[in-house]
Each structure stands twice: as structure tokens, then as C-alpha cells.
Design a protein that fits this description.
The protein has 13 helices and 12 strands. By secondary structure, the chain is of the alpha/beta class. The chain has 2 domains: 116 residues, Gcn5-related N-acetyltransferase (GNAT) (Aminopeptidase), CATH 3.40.630.30; 214 residues, HUPs (Rossmann fold, 3-Layer(aba) Sandwich), CATH 3.40.50.620. Strand 3 and strand 4 form a beta hairpin. Helix 10 crosses helix 13. It starts with a strand and ends with a helix.
Length: 342
């Protein structure tokens, strides 16, 4: 019986890198675990785990078709479970999807040059956890980071909520922003509490996550980033929209950031293929500011670092302002000013 082992020695990792790159894959050093299969002292198969994502699965052509893939996945599952994960992902090419079916990986979404597989039914669990908040009707969605929640976000939500029966406001759960997820969600809930048809939810790992769309957090724009955008949008259209009866996705116009503007364009292109209308809402300027000086969370953060609270007051809802003036907000402002915030 073939089995895989965890690779820990420098020479084994170097051999894994050589094997992976020999098959045309890019070696990623950020992974938590590397595993491999040796035959006669030679590394013939390797793979890695980064959190709940299995990456760089590589098997020499002459060794494919047997137990090798199962051995790699079994060891990655063991290490992942030891690290506290229950759901796992694999990104692969669409033509490779059937190879993973015997190992309990199911197709989550496919689009363009990539497919995303999942084991553990994480998507079903996430939808089930939110079942009590799902409402029938012609519903819409906004996906925001809210770093922090501004009057621009509130304008988007207000405009969108008038056009649908229920508006789901999905707040990015990934904690890779200056304002922690718990704070971002709390501010979004407080600012929209008076809007009876707005339901605030988290995105879990299924929209704009470090796994589906890592380039979002790096503000990178290249062909890899565009493929990530497409897969993220296909996932929304194929899975999230049907689960929540979403027929329209609302976005704010993006005059400044090239990566976000490109993401908007991908949504405009892809969402109609899934029966989801793409609706762009123009940005607004702050009170007393020129129209060109639109409200953005990045401007709020920059002003916060300079302690320009009167300027910020014209850009954010009262709930956000109260937080920024609190001890917790003050501590965050100090981190931003010192350049230590994420």
C-alpha cells in the first residue's frame, strides 16, 4: 500500500520544489505542510496544504493512475484535521475534476480555466446556518469589506434596498483588513438597522476570501488575478445567488482603484450568464466636498491616521464615528498612524 509522508528536511523540500516546477507549476513557499511519496529513494509525488486549501498536487506522469493521488490526499487530510480544519478545497483544471471524485471532493464551481472542489460540505453548512434568515422574493446582494463602513456604503445599501424585496449585505469575513471582521460587521449592522429589508451576513469563505480571491487583499492586477475574479464571480452566480434567491448584485462605481474596477467589469460580464443582474450605483462625495472627492474607506483610514475627525464626520455614519472616537477606535488609529495595522 502506498503512503505519503510529511516533508520536513531541507533536501526533501528542495526535491519537492524541483518536482513541482518540473511539471509547470509555480512553487508556493507559504504552505503549512508539504507531503510526498518516495519510490526507491526518489520523490515521485508531492503536494502541500495552505490552511484548508490543498495545493501543488504533482505526480510524475509515469506514476499516475494508481494509488498515488489517494496517498497524498489522505496525508493532507490528516494534517489538516490535526490543524483544526473540517472542510478542504482544491483548485484544479476542469478536465481534472473526475480524478478527485473517489476521494469525496465534489465540484463547487467551475468557470474559465479553473474549477474549485470541496470536501466536507462547507457550503451546505454555511447556507444551513443562515437558513432562518433566507427570505423568499426578488432579492439582491451587496458584498462589501467595509474597512470601515462609510456613508458611501450606506448610500449603496439604501439605493439597492429600494429595488428588491430583501437585500443581503454580505460582509467579507476574511480578517486581512485594518478593521477586524467583528468590528466591520458590527458597524454595518448598526448603520443599516433602520432598513427593515436589509439582512447582514458574512461571506464565510465563499466570496472575496483569501482562497477564492487572494489578489483582492494584495491589490494585484494581472491575468492570475483576473482568473481569480472570474472564479469568485462564478461561485457567486452558480451557488450563492440561487441559495439566497438573489437576482441582482449591486456594486459601487470605482473611479480610483484599478483592481476593484476590474472586478466590477468581471461581474458585469459574468453575472448575467447566471441570471443575475449587475447594477452599478454611482459613488457620492462627502458633505461639503467637491463631487470628485468621493467617499472611500481608504480616505477615512488616511484621515484617521492624521486624527482629522471633523473631516471624517462628513464621510461616515454615526455608528462608525462613535466607534472611531471610542478607546477601541483610538487604539486602532494609533496603529494606523504607526503603520502597524494590517
Amino acid at each position: 500500500m502506498i503512503s505519503a509522508t510529511k516533508l520536513t528536511f531541507g533536501r526533501d523540500l528542495a526535491e519537492a520544489r524541483a518536482l513541482i516546477e518540473s511539471q509547470g507549476l509555480r512553487f508556493e513557499e507559504h504552505c503549512d505542510d508539504f507531503v510526498g511519496v518516495f519510490q526507491d529513494g526518489r520523490l515521485v509525488a508531492a503536494a502541500a496544504r495552505a490552511g484548508y486549501v490543498f495545493e501543488m498536487i504533482t505526480i510524475l506522469p509515469e506514476c499516475q493512475g494508481g494509488e498515488m493521488l489517494g496517498a497524498l490526499l489522505t496525508e493532507l487530510h490528516r494534517l489538516g484535521r490535526d490543524a483544526g480544519h473540517e472542510v478542504f478545497w482544491i483548485f484544479t483544471r476542469p478536465e481534472h475534476v473526475p480524478s478527485f471524485a473517489p476521494y469525496h471532493f465534489q465540484l463547487l464551481v467551475t468557470g474559465g480555466k479553473a474549477a474549485l472542489l470541496e470536501s466536507g460540505n462547507g457550503f451546505g453548512r454555511w447556507v444551513g446556518e443562515n437558513a432562518a434568515r433566507i427570505r423568499p422574493g426578488r432579492n439582491g446582494a451587496c458584498v462589501i469589506n467595509g474597512n470601515p463602513f462609510t456613508l458611501g456604503h450606506l448610500h449603496l445599501v439604501e439605493q439597492a434596498s429600494r429595488r428588491v424585496d430583501t437585500l443581503y449585505l454580505f460582509v467579507v469575513r476574511e480578517d486581512r483588513s485594518v478593521f477586524p471582521y467583528a468590528v466591520r460587521r458590527r458597524l454595518a449592522e448598526r448603520a443599516t438597522a433602520r432598513l427593515a429589508n436589509v439582512v447582514v451576513l458574512d461571506t464565510s469563505r465563499y466570496a472575496v476570501s483569501a482562497a477564492t480571491f487572494p489578489s483582492y487583499f494584495l491589490k494585484r492586477l494581472d491575468e492570475v488575478a483576473r482568473e481569480q475574479m472570474r472564479l469568485d464571480v462564478h461561485l457567486f452566480g452558480q451557488r450563492i445567488a440561487p441559495a439566497f434567491s438573489v437576482v441582482a448584485r449591486f456594486v459601487g462605481s470605482e473611479p480610483a482603484d484599478p483592481a476593484t474596477r476590474a472586478y466590477n467589469e468581471v461581474m458585469r460580464e459574468v453575472l448575467p450568464d447566471h441570471g443575475v443582474e449587475w447594477v452599478e450605483i454611482p459613488r457620492i462625495a462627502g458633505a461639503g466636498r467637491p463631487a470628485a472627492e468621493f467617499i472611500s474607506a481608504s480616505r477615512v483610514r488616511a484621515a484617521l491616521a492624521r486624527r482629522e475627525f471633523e473631516m471624517i464626520r462628513g464621510w461616515v455614519p454615526e455608528a462608525t464615528m462613535e466607534f472611531l472616537l471610542s478607546p477601541e477606535g483610538s487604539a486602532l488609529a494609533e496603529r494606523i498612524a504607526a503603520g502597524t495595522a494590517a
